[in-house]
Structures are given as C-alpha cells and as structure tokens.
Amino acid sequence: MSKLSPKVKKLYYSIGEVSELTGLKAYVLRYWETEFSQLKPPKNRAGNRTYRQKDIDVIMHVKNLLYNEKYTIDGARSVLKGGKNKSKLSDAETANEKQKIIVKKIRDNLETILSIISK
User: Could you tell me the residue ranges of all domains in the chain?
Assistant: First the structure.
C-alpha cells in the first residue's frame, strides 16, 4: 500500500477533497465510517467532516483490502483490528504459492498425456 500525498499539504481536508484524492465517492467514505471504527474523522463547527492525513491513509488501506485484495468488509475489519492478515505474506511467499499451483497443473497435464500415450 502506498501512502497518498496530495499536492498541497494541509492539516485538514474536506470530504470532497478526500473523495477526489482517493477516487472514491463521498457516500462510500461516509458508509465506511459506519463500518470501520478506525475511520472517525472529526467534524468542525459547521458539522463538516475534517479528514487528516492519517484518515486518508486508513481509507487507502481499506480501499486496497476491499478492491485489490478482494476482502469482504468483515475480513477487512478484522485485518484492521489486527486479526489474521493475509496481506502480510511476503512477495516471495506469494510467488512460491503461485509456482506450486503452476507445477501441479503441469504435472497433472503430463500425467494425462502419459496415460493417453500408454493406451
């Protein structure tokens, strides 16, 4: 997950600015506030949400979990709370698992070819 840094550094961002930065609709951000306890941006006197950089980082982490790693909301919630984190596997471990799957498919295909030849 890469940290998203806006062009202009500010202490607080509006929901529209965060929506533009993250590529998410404002209603998605408001919904995620109800689902993830880590995402609670304070509101100013007018009642508008004021997001800080740490809020934007949490949003990007959630977006990565939901959209890229295909977690459910419950799964992403447990990852954020420190539960079992599948995304902590190193790239080498992930590549190793993919290689095992490819080797198994090749082995199965070779066994099929061998059985056809031996008939």
Answer: 1-87, 89-119
The Cα 91–Cα 55 span in angstroms is 27
Residues 6+ apart with CB under 8 A from 83: none
> For each successive 10 residues of the chain (119 residues), what is the average pLDDT?
63 94 95 94 94 94 93 91 60 72 90 90
Per-residue CA distances from 10 to 7, 50, 80, 90 (Å): 9, 11, 25, 34
**Top CATH class, 1-87:** mainly alpha
State the pLDDT at residue 52: 94
